[in-house]
Structure formats: structure tokens, C-alpha cells
Amino acid sequence: MLVELGAIPLLIELFQDGHCYKHSVSVVRKSDAVPVLVELLRDGNGEVRGKVSGAIAQLSYNEADRAALADSGEVPILIELLYELEDLKDNAAEILVNLAEDPCSMIQYLKQLMFLHS
Where does this protein have coiled-coil stretches (predicted)? Predict the structure, then answer.
């Protein structure tokens, strides 16, 4: 639904620039945008992936958003981004560090990694 409405570029710009961050986080969480952002991170072109990773980095500072990210299956994608272009590496590292602050989410991430390597 967000894609059809053309909301994704606006959300990316909003988070990338940091405008109205406190108010926009709850909108993103309630709209189920996290899975859409993760899909764009996985399949988007370089520019889109850079902007999406920046948006997810902003989301990763919020505890509730980290929980949504934990359920999204993004950790393996982030680990792959550590081998990409510099801005993608920086954003991926920032997200992973922020996600590590939440022990419950870390259990979810570790399970994702175990599943990938089984």
C-alpha cells in the first residue's frame, strides 16, 4: 500500500534528513513500513539502498523500532552490506551496533544467522 501511494520516497527523505523524527517514527511503525524498507534494502539499486539503510539506521535508535526490525529478517542483509560501498557499510554498522543494545532482539538476530548457516 505504501508503494502504491508513493510514500516510500517521502519516508526515506524524511528519515534521511531527520525532519520530524519523533512524530514520524510511530507512523512508520504503525504502517508496517519496516518490511517494505527491508525489501528495498535487499532488492533496490545502490542509491535506494543507501537511502533506505540511512532510514533504517534512524529507526534503529528507537527501542520499539528495533523490535520491529528484529522481526524483519534484516540482519543477514546488513551483514552483506558490510562488504558494499562505504556509505552502505557505515549505515549497516551503525544499525548493527544499535540493534546490539537490545538483548531480546539480539536473540532473534542470532537465530536468523543460525538459520542462514544451517
Answer: none
Grid coordinates representing 63 are 527501542
Burial pattern 28-45, b for ≥16 Cβ within 10 A else e, equals bbeeebbebbbbbbeebe
Query: pTM of the entire structure?
Result: 0.67
Report the C-alpha gap between 87 and 53 in whole angstroms: 9
- In tens, the pLDDT along 22-67 reads 444 555 666 678 888 888 888 878 888 888 899 889 888 887 788 7
Cα separations in angstroms, 88 against 8, 31, 91, 112: 19, 25, 5, 21
> Which residue shows C-alpha cell 542509491?
47
Alpha carbon distances (Å) from 7 to 26, 27, 40, 99 = 15, 12, 13, 25
